[in-house]
Automatic annotation (TrEMBL):
Species assigned in the record: Cyclobacterium xiamenense
Subcellular location: Cytoplasm
Keyword Ligase: yes
Main localization of the protein described in the UniProt heading: cytoplasm
Cellular component, GO, one term: cytoplasm
Residue ranges of the TM segments: none
GO aspect biological process, one term: asparaginyl-tRNA aminoacylation
Keywords: Aminoacyl-tRNA synthetase, ATP-binding, Coiled coil, Cytoplasm, Ligase, Nucleotide-binding, Protein biosynthesis
CDD domains: AsxRS_core (cd00776), EcAsnRS_like_N (cd04318)
UniProt subunit comment: Homodimer.
Enzyme Commission number(s) of this protein: 6.1.1.22
Name of protein: Asparagine--tRNA ligase
Amino acid sequence: NKRIKIKHLIENTYTGETVTVMGWVRTRRSNKHVTFIALNDGSSIQNYQIVADPEKINEELLKKANTGACLKITGTVVASQGSGQQSEIQADRIEILGEADPDKYPIQPKKHSLEFLRENAHLRVRTNTFGAIFRIRHHLAFAVHQYFHQKGFCYLHSPIITASDAEGAGETFQVTTLDLKNPPRDENNAINFKEDFFERATNLTVSGQLEGELAALALSEIYTFGPTFRAENSNTTRHLAEFWMIEPEMAFYDAEDNQNLAEDFLQYIIGFALENCQEDLAFLDQRAAEEEKNKKAEQRSELGLLERLEFVTKNTFVRISYTEALDILRNSKPNKKKKFTYPIDEWGTDLQSEHERYLVEKHFKKPVIITDYPKAIKSFYMKQNEDGKTVAAMDILFPGIGEIIGGSQREERLDKLTERMQELGISQEEMWWYLDTRRFGTAPHAGFGLGFERLVQFVTGMSNIRDVIPFPRTPGNAEF
Ligand code: ATP
Ligand code: MG
Ligand code: MG
Ligand code: MG
């Protein structure tokens, strides 16, 4: 008998047929006459009911079918007597593929805290919550590729090991083959990276953008989607040391084309999840609602999870400049104390997530794109505006999250770019390869970066980013 996935058993009619299923026991209930096993194989959030008659199935064997054990079951599909599901399997044969000692198996059928599950990240995917999250994560990744493929973008694999730090996008992880306990030294007693495998100092990439720009100035429209690494020592709920980034880069796009693409992209991706992950989202919506109840009134979100997703798909994003945003914030009363924790009076101050969330959740009640930031708080590669003070940057702000996308039109003029690099003390010698694109056949171009886990966080409603990646890498945490 061929194995059938539980999702197919639920969605199709197999009544009367003999089938085989395999999966893990979620719960087992017995009385004198019969044993019920709720089986899950990860294809659906729903468990499938197996009915075992002790006259047919050895009782000693049934005792081993504890929560967490892995089973192979062959039996007949029959219409279900109980409520909750259409059909169930009357087992003819049960095989224990893997036992789970009930005294030692940590994932018992009860509500575990997220902290406990994080400590058991190797097994937490066997819970409903994490099954739902990782299925949604898969769908989002698939939708990203589908979106760009349909638009004719080329998926570009940027390198993981690089010699550039994308100019300070974050703290880097060094990569070396040298024995750092006893490294070779040069004449100045500095570590001699000439003896390293790469004959230079290298690090894990913090962003694929600069390489993406090189490719866009040949393939016109590309996107990267790969792991990035930042050794930021921030124990926040929105930062990981290893996270995945989606970075489209497009020749012949100006700042407005870039904003249009980002808005359309986000609405597509989130719409895709709403359409294709209904069961998992309904489960997480419920979960998020319960979580909200435990929050202090002022921290409670006005929107439920599904409402928040529709907030993105159904609203046209507001577009305002940094200067306009600052005016709004200066004249706002965010709460009873009428003050933000970080004062926001001076032009040039960067927005904090409390300001970003205020604009989205309280002032506009729509997703917001902020454009034309002061050049001092943005990167050297952003196109300088005519006013001499701002650059053609954009940040996209979402409810509950704040910044989800950062992007810009890039500076394509060699003279303006090198002038800015000089001001900031960035070595033109080291960046010769980047500057070559401006020397030879330069073109207007733009792009943006979306942290994939921030997106998954938004769509699943999880408040900690560690709960939306299978194996989170954070300070002190890399065991498994
Ligand atoms: P933040 O202000 O939140 O630290 P950033 O401005 O440093 O973000 P960018 O360099 O603009 O981040 O990176 C682009 C996107 O990558 C961000 O908009 C965000 O979605 C995501 N991102 C940045 N740092 C992290 C991180 N440590 N973990 C997860 N996602 C991140
Ligand atoms: Mg940062
Ligand atoms: Mg930022
Ligand atoms: Mg940013």
